[in-house]
Amino acid sequence: MQALDQIIKDRIPAHVAIIMDGNGRWAKQHGLQRMFGHKQGVKTVHEITTAAAKLGIQYLTLYAFSTENWNRPKEEVDALMALLVETIKQETPTLMNNNVRLMTIGDLSRLPEVTRQKFEQCLEQTSHNTGLNLVLALSYSSRWEITHAMQQAATDVAQGKRDAASIDEQAVSDYMTTAGMPDPDLLIRTSGEYRISNFLLWQLAYAELYFTDKLWPDFCVEDFYAAIVDYQHRERRFGKTSEQLEVES
Ligand code: IPE
Ligand code: IPE
Ligand code: MG
Predict the structure, then answer these.
(1) What is the C-alpha separation between 235 and 247, in angstroms, rounded?
(2) Catalytic: 69?
(3) Distance CA 249, CA 246 (A)
(4) Which of 115, 144, 173, 192 is the 20 to 30 A CA-CA neighbour of 4?
(5) Is the CB of 58 within 6 Å of ligand 1?
(6) Mean pLDDT across the stretch 228-234?
(7) How far is the CA of 44 from the centre of ligand 1 (A)?
(8) Neighbours of 166 (CB within 10 A)
(9) Does the beta carbon of 25 sit less than 6 angstroms from any atom of ligand 1?
(10) Is the confidence at residue 130, as pLDDT, over 80?
């Protein structure tokens, strides 16, 4: 049976987050420069986004460029920034056709002007779409986000906008760049690495983690469905016992 047929339609995760890793190794395996891996990776983004929209997933968050990735060789960083512009140009019609709304999280002020402008245009253009929310994490890291959130909360307290005691878990979530989004239900990481790499540390508190050896450019829609099927067979206990969950259901 195909993985798609095994997906339970009324248990689709609301939010799937993906650490898209392995582009460089894919290129190396094929005797190519790293950028070819990134270009091939864009094709996977297209396929997976389309599949997620069709499945009725509400949020798909893709880790596209981390704060730490700024430390890569300048030529790779520059080429990635140019690829982002090209990709947005090329993909905006598909986003519109699929009713996908583009969102971003991260420190966009660090992006080159032309890249930032292109994103802002696409954010605006897709802002009324009501299907999948495609969230690109760009110049993002969780520690950057948490640091920023703490500065904001401290400023609000200092300016008398709120009491320190009113900062509960919900308030912390609201200070994050993901305010208003449900926490990810499922995190997928490709390329056989078993780490989180500074991604959504607060939001992933109770996510189900799924690791695959497939390199991102080789990750296909079937692999995506397989990850969702695997997720649907997990028991999410949120600290409770299995017996409690049985009584509640
Ligand atoms: C992921 O692929 C894409 C980005 C981080 C921009 P990598 O470029 O990290 O690929 P590997 O890990 O070197 O194979
Ligand atoms: C994580 O991949 C960041 C993105 C996928 C954008 P990296 O390749 O940068 O992660 P590490 O450095 O191997 O942990
Ligand atoms: Mg990598």
Answers:
(1) 14
(2) yes
(3) 5
(4) 192
(5) no
(6) 98
(7) 14
(8) 12
(9) yes
(10) yes
Q: For residues 38 and 81, is the Cβ–Cβ distance under 8 A?
A: no
d(CA 114, CA 119): 9
Q: In this structure, is the dihedral angle defined by the CA atoms of residues 214, 211, 246 and 203, taken in order, positive or negative?
A: negative
- For the chain, counts of helices (H) and of strands (E): 9, 6
- Dist. CA 232–CA 7, nearest whole Å: 8
pLDDT at 155: 98
DSSP 101: E
Record the tokens describing residue 184, joined without a space: 């990810």
Instruction: Reply yes or no on whether the pLDDT at 1 is more than 80.
Output: no
Residue 2 has a pLDDT of 87
The number of beta carbons lying within 10 Å of the beta carbon of residue 15 is 22
CA dihedral 199, 91, 33, 104 (to 10 degrees): -20
Q: Which of 21, 136, 197, 216 to mutate to test the pocket of ligand 1 (most atoms within 8 A of CB)?
A: 21
List the residue whose alpha carbon is closest to atom 7 of ligand 2: 21
Task: With CA atoms as reference, report the closest residue to 224 among 35, 52, 33.
Answer: 52
Using CA atoms, how far apart are residues 214 and 168, in angstroms rounded to an integer? 39
